[in-house]
Amino acid sequence: MTSAVRRGTQAAPGQDEQANASISVMVAEGHAVVRTALVAVLQSAAGIEVVGAPEGSDATVQTARGNKPDVIIYDPLPPIKATELGASVGLIHAASPDSALMIISESDDPGPAQAALRAGAIGYMLKSDEPEDFLRAVMRAARGVPWVSPRVAIAMTTISDGTAGLTDRELEVVRLVALGYTNKEIAELIHLSVRTVESHRAAILKKLGARTRSEIVRYALDHEMIE
């Protein structure tokens, strides 16, 4: 199936940050009902164009190579092991290196999410996520900002590492910052006030000798905190 290209009419979350630039999105989803729903949500948002909706891994790679979309939404059907998912992500990424690859799945197991991110995916969404979060993830992906579904993100923060003298809570904040969450979103996820999260970030920057969010992300990547 290949979806007709159509521009949406409603503003997507975070659209103002895109300065009305059009975002091309490919939806690689094996379930027809889910694929139709995802395309409909994307087409409802202004500034987004659906440029393909292939079925199957071979068609996904071919369409990605031919269309070079800004964002690729990929559901690795049927459920596969983390190593197999990593290999699939690698093939799609090789076909269109400049595309931001976002995995969408029913599984909240952090293992596949870690494998996908390690292989080059920019994020991992759940089919149970709200449409608003789905659009927000797409908009972030187009800007090169990671997004991981909150349930999966929390599971990925359970590994403790005392490097740089960071506390367990600070390490949790580091991982969530690196996964693209704002202070407000982090506060909601781990049940803290925004001011407390800001205090944790200030302490993290001081301990790491860093000044920017990008340096926190680099630290997390270098120490394999968000594999």
UniProtKB/TrEMBL annotation:
All copies of domain Response regulatory, residue ranges = 24-142
Q: Which InterPro entries match?
A: CheY-like_superfamily, NreC/VraR/RcsB-like_REC, Sig_transdc_resp-reg_C-effctor, Sig_transdc_resp-reg_receiver, Tscrpt_reg_LuxR_C, WalR-like
Which residue intervals define the domain HTH luxR-type in the entry?
Answer: 159-224
A single GO BP: regulation of DNA-templated transcription
Gene3D superfamilies, alphabetized: 3.40.50.2300
Keywords assigned by UniProt?
DNA-binding, Phosphoprotein, Transcription, Transcription regulation
SUPFAM superfamilies noted in UniProt: C-terminal effector domain of the bipartite response regulators, CheY-like
UniProt-recorded name of the protein: Unannotated protein
Q: Which organism is it from?
A: freshwater metagenome
